[in-house]
Amino acid sequence: MFQDEARFGRMVRIRRCWAPMPLRPKVDNGYERQFVYVYGAVSPLQGQLDWMISPKMDTEQMNQFLAQVSKAHADEFIVMVVDGASSHRSKDLQVPENIRLHRLPGYSPELNPQEHVWDELREKEFPNRVFETMDAVIGQLEAGLPRLAANTQALRSLTAWPWIVSLNMKAY
Predict the structure, then answer these.
(1) 28-77 pLDDT, tens per residue?
(2) 47 φ, ψ (degrees, to nearest 5)
(3) Inter-residue contact 42 to 65 (CB < 8 Å)
(4) What strand order describes the sheet that includes 78-82?
(5) How confident is the model at residue 171 (pLDDT cuts 50, 70, 90)?
(6) N- to C-terminal Cα distance for the chain?
């Protein structure tokens, strides 16, 4: 599995969009700096996505996420690829017995397919939207994440990069 965290909030992310000629699309802009975090881990071969919405990003929340993933995949041994975030290196990090963490090289988000999952979620669920409240952002995440997780074929297509597939084949 490949793991990462992402921040979602009330600030709009301007995206390209289509409009019939001669109209020009109008997009509101929001400057509120309120955020919520999402922990995610994707299994590229199975197209499975585990996720957790959190008010903050720290070691305690990472511990909760690892426990959640461990419980969801209790009969599996998971090699989880993580970045170098401080919460992934903390002495207080509690890694369950059925999970082993493997760190990516520093400053290499392009090696983590979970980054593409965040891009897909932002593109499909959050384009050109200003949310009035944080509850609305959380509601959109709670609706969009299960939709994304349910489409295993799309997740495989998005994340099962050739080098990842070949690594897993060699692991057997």
Answers:
(1) 666 667 899 999 999 999 999 999 999 999 999 999 999 999 999 999 99
(2) 70, 35
(3) no
(4) 48-54, 35-43, 2-9, 78-82, 99-103
(5) low
(6) 16
